[in-house]
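Structure tokens please, single chain.
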Amino acid sequence: MIIEFFGPPGSGKTTFSLTLADRLRGRGYPASLRLSARPGEEVLATGVHGEEEPSGSFRTAARRLIFPAYELIAKAGGWSNHASPNGRVASMLSKALPQGQILRSLRMRQYLYRLSSVWAQAGRSQDIWIFDQAYIQAVASIALVQPGMKDESIVALLQAAPQADIAFRVEAPLDELETRIGRRHRSIGGFGRLLEETSVGVQEHAALAHRIEGLLRRLDRQVLALNSVDDETFEENIGIAERATLNAFAGPTRQIM
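Here you go.
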């Protein structure tokens, strides 16, 4: 079973994912967690796997710049095989980016290659797999750099990408998003900010997330909205996410209250 979060930066996707995994494990359910803060910077967490460097360090930023190119060159043979799920999905989504954005396309391909490999592993597993962002967020990234993209084009990308069992859209007030993003930018330092995605206002991010939620509902996908405005709201909404996940995991014969 696969769970996927999406929403604007700073909305709480990673926090919800971490907390949901902890809650499920605490109740004895098998939960695997895939964290991916940004394309080119991701970690598989089925517990604690090593210590992360400070996000603002030069070494971390340099790795984010160099490693995508190295990984794609090392796997060039796999990319040439468009019949494979990895090559097909990555090529299709990457080609949807505007022409001329070489670095963005490179990072997107590297991100999608890693994502699709873990997604395939999740599909073969009996565990509950939680992705703090995945294919829906990738489609959102593509749409954000093409403001004129029509609903039909976004729907085509959503249909072509692998589907989660449940998608959670995470939101927070715009002023709170601005505050959280400001804190993140201060933490990653000047060099780290150079490697961030092209800046788009939080209002555009939030509006697109709402729009994608509507399109997912048109496709009869199971999608729920969560809010992280404050601690009390977060606790209430993580409970909603936990019940929805366990109900889907248990199947239609038994509902978790």
